[in-house]
Amino acid sequence: MTKQIHLAAHFPGVNNTTVWSDPAAGSHIEFDSFRQFAQTAERGRLDFLFLAEGLRLREQNGLIYDLDVVGRPDTFTVLAALAAVTEHIGLTGTINSTFNEPYEVARQFASLDHLSGGRSAWNVVTSWDAFTGENFRRGGYLAQGDRYERARTFLATALELWDSWRGDEILADSGTGQFLATAAPGTFRHRDAFFDIAGQFNVPRSPQGRPVIFQAGDSDEGRDFAAASADAIFSRYSTLEAGQAFYADVKGRLPRFGRTRGELLILPAATFVLGDTDAEAAEIARDVRRAQVSPQTALMFIEQLWNTELSGFDVDGPLPSFDPVVSDTLISQGRASVRQFAKDPVALAAEWRARAEAGNLSAREVVIEVTGRQSFVGSAETVATTINELVQADAADGYIMVPHITPGGLAPFVDQVVPLLQERGVFRADYTGTTLRDHLGLAPLRRAEQTTAARAVAAG
Amino acid sequence: MVPTPAPLHLAVALDGAGWHPAAWREPDAQPQRLFTAGYWTELARHAERGLLDFLTIEDGLDLQSDDRFQADSRTDRVRGRLDAVLIAARVAPVTRHIGFVPTAITTHTEPFHLSKAIATLDYVSAGRAGIRVQVAARAGTTAHFGRRDIPPLEPDRLADPDTQRLIADHFDEAADYVEVLRRLWDSWEDDAEIRDVATGRFIDRDKLHYIDFEGRWFSVKGPSITPRPPQGQPIIAALGHASVPYQLIARSADVGFVTPRDAAHAAEIVAEIRTEQARAGRAGMTVHVFGDLVVFLDETKAAAVARRQRLDERAGAEYHSDAHIFTGTAIGLADLLQEWQAAGLSGFRLRPAAPPHDLTQLTERLVPELRRRCLFRARYEADTLRGLLGLGRPANRYAAA
Known about the structure:
A: alpha/beta; TIM Barrel; 2 domains; 8-stranded parallel β-barrel; 3-stranded antiparallel β-sheet; B: TIM Barrel; 35% helix
């Protein structure tokens, strides 16, 4: 059977992939940018828009990192405002389970779900670093190994809070004077190693019952967490082979948690460059990669891998001949990608040098090669065909498109690629439901099912 | 030449179906829609048609209760509420002039999160954001968070020194919280974003500042992840009924809501706040003191009294409030506001007993009457909430002079 494709849009983030130097690039903070982006996505009938998170400005060599976009709005607040200027599109926010408390996050998402008429989703992420913790009451209190455990119990607790209202409590019968059907709605008690809370949740059950749950973890633990409790995974495997392997692995874990394949969508992030022809698109893509890796940015990447300051280093010459500094102390803070570098920096540096030698590449050219290669490059026809083939081959259930220009970078995809997918009958011509669960093809929740999910999460 | 009287500032306080517990049963109430965006949008647009300065939205981190100290199990009252900051954010883009001052609890939440939330509310409203800070001392609320061991307030021991110290601690924490909000809002200078293609720099990092706040309850490093909001400093408001909260208003707020019994009491409260303001080194700064009033309004005083009695009968008890309750006509209310204004108040936060009726009375009867007396604006004269309140855009505390 032909699968229907799910498509979403990621508001460009604070990585070097976002090209702020392009003359067409607009504000990353003014509400008009968010409004334009969301309305473009809705014009394309996309499932949802997606916002990432970062709770401390990044630093390198002890200084605030200044080469990428810096600054973003509060996720909940901007999503609630976007609900006012859109009607259908889902609103997915990345919210940290480490620097928040379940009662507050549960009521913020329940409120967002009410205020958007059932369009909210939560991408549950975790962190442990003391660096980010310096902005919060508790500081960096969590051991790295505990972060999934806290995330798991945080989500289980939130599910209990959302389930504490069944949905039939409010009578609001002015004749009899009964507002509530029951005397103590929202009653809960939760106790585990991380949370010991009890009382009454104060937001009535929301249109979707709870937000759609996203997960982005990639480790074995993270995949189990997603298979147990998520409705969708935000993954990084946008190619055929890697995508199929991830897809098969995660979908294969579902039966263990009593779930079927349709209950968890795999949605990799994907970048794209369009042109009138494939050749033109390839040329534009090369220019975009050069813009994404300015000489200054190339130096920062090299410093991150070598884990040392290299002021005065010429990025148009060869890579450093010495090995990276192996240390638990990293010069770059607040950036998840650096952890990939830190796994085995000496081996990775050797790999970069081998690439340089094979292609006779300068240091900057190597960085351009190893970072920021776009997922989909070609004419609209080529990109539409590729996306459809990947989805039909079970490399994904759809993609979260990440444009490199804010806010206008999404429009070419919506105007050129989406209509081709619609013509082929693999993407909706119009919204057929009102909630994000509807758009994602997820069945409406009954309370019993949610309770099962809460138990599954709690049992791990 | 007749001196022009100082204009009054007017805010409306929104809370569920209204401030009277039987308001949700009124024929024009919409209790089934309390948890929808449409309900709040209509109220905000209504208040905006009346040219009000701002609206406030009550909130709390527990289920409403008629008992100040613990949960009750009533089924005849409105229970449940949406996050007030998110209601404001949802409504702001579909209004143009009115300010939004939602409530946030300082006792259990993170100042870093709230700072960027209100900065963002300021962006999505193009400069119309504020926040009313409130402490949460109820034991039930503490149990919802379970990570702080705060002794509960006990109704029969309120005068004990321990209880008084606890209350003072809650407000001292709120003052620290506000200090963190304000520092984070200033942690980016206005021109920090430079987009300098030649050097590849998006920001001038010398114009971003660590706030390095360290206090009894929390430490916050900064800078904010959100650039300085359009107003520079969104409005801070607080409600107070006694000296400890008056100190918070005087030390930290732009607008204080107070609950005088009469004009003489209003004068006393204003004098106390001004004294505290001077002690805190803020004598030269504008701190508005607004009188809070619950209002039952009608075309005649008899009709207002009858309506209030009918509501009380439905509620099964006479309505009491921390604020003075006014029952009468818009003209009578205008007289009272003018008298209290003369005692030193610069504005009022009116709590409609039962909107939409009492809100309509405010916008269609009270506002024209005040305008006739040259006490209220004929059109919105500014684009930001600070502008409506006569406050300039403040300099950044971290910017080099």
